[in-house]
Amino acid sequence: MKKQMIAMLLAGGQGSRLGALTQGMAKPAVAFGGKYRIIDFPLSNCVNSGVDTVGVLTQYRPLQLNSHIGIGIPWDLDKQFGGVTILPPYEKTGDSEWYTGTANAIYQNLEFMEQYNPDYVLILSGDHIYKMDYEDMLSRHVSAGAEATIAVMPVPWDEASRYGIMITDAEGRITDFEEKPKNPRSNLASMGIYIFNFKTLKNELQELSNVPNCDFGMHVIPHIHRRGGKLYSYQFNSYWKDVGTLGTYWEANMELTDLVPEFNLYEEFWQIYTSAEAYPPAYIAEGGKAESSIVGDGSSIEGSVKHSVLGANVKIAPGAKIRDSVIMNGVVIGEGAVIRKAIIAENTVIGAGTHIGEGFFAASRLDPRVYNNDITVVGANSVIPENVSIGKNVAIMGKTVPEDYPNGVLESGDYIIKKGGRA
């Protein structure tokens, strides 16, 4: 038996720009939208597009990701031939080799792909939020007679210098490309989604096998272009967001609470599937209030929630006020606590009377490249004591005690990273 097209889903990234959120897990495993994890979106796209064979390449802290995917039952990927397969780096004769680039990771799994002898291979990233019909992209690839097709989307011209930019002719054939150009000649940005003829992909990976940190955008695509290979674009014009920074992650969650969200999670014809524990319905007590918010199953609200996204089994005590925040699964927020513009990761406990998001923005003393806005971030399994005041652009990781807060205050831009934590 053979497959027409299989997917290879790159899900091993650390996601270092998400700071405390990825301290204990890979970026694709981070919770999103009150119910899902980021990897649910490309996996669901595969199922909805008729792609029933997916290899998921993992590397950085894969335990939670592996547990979430399991044998693929929620996505109907528990199949005898095909389905979903976790592909971590493995020890070869004489040495053990990590994945050192996107193309190198695929190269190390040639044997996995060969067992299906596919006509085409779909390469995906595991850390973007979007809905795409890969079958439509494949039709474009086949009709163009392409060797490789790259999904592109128009971006604002003033942002084009941040991306790999494709220059195309009237038929969509890629005539040139520029990596983060200062003066872009096009605004069609690569989305990091590729379809290859398997024969082309195999030949390219073998030919470039000795290139250090071999990458699709930096090495494989330029190599095909230099030899005159048939490279085509597939233009995508719907919602797509790389949630690779704290700002874009917070923004994408907040957009879900709009009256008519641009990215609709409620469409029946293109559902997003996930693996989730069974909880009772959410409960809003007398005196509790939730406005313009997403509230996950099993959550109980005795305080007030506005313009926020709550995961499953969140407990909000009387008098607590949550505004403009992402609160992940299992968080407990004590009586009278006030939280403004924060991301609180899973299974964290916020003490009664504590205020988060106070005062004014200040530059981060920890890592300004990661923490550079007025969002305060608390990592998973953290504890924050009662009656402390925490500023903006703060990072907290671990079980903290009152003594960690001089005079009961943690100023804006400051941080607490307890032993064993990294943010």
Q: What would you say about this model in short?
A:
With 423 residues, the protein is α/β, with parallel strands linked by helices.
Question: How is the secondary structure organized here?
Answer:
Blueprint: E1 5-10, E2 31-32, E3 36-37, H1 40-48, E4 53-57, H2 63-69, E5 83-87, E6 91-92, E7 95-96, H3 102-107, H4 110-114, E8 120-125, E9 128-130, H5 134-144, E10 148-154, E11 164-168, E12 174-179, E13 188-197, H6 198-207, H7 216-226, E14 231-235, E15 240-242, H8 246-255, E16 283-284, E17 289-291, E18 294-295, E19 300-301, E20 304-306, E21 309-310, E22 315-316, E23 321-323, E24 326-327, E25 332-333, E26 338-340, E27 342-344, E28 349-350, E29 355-358, E30 376-378, E31 383-384, E32 389-391, E33 395-397, E34 409-410, E35 415-417
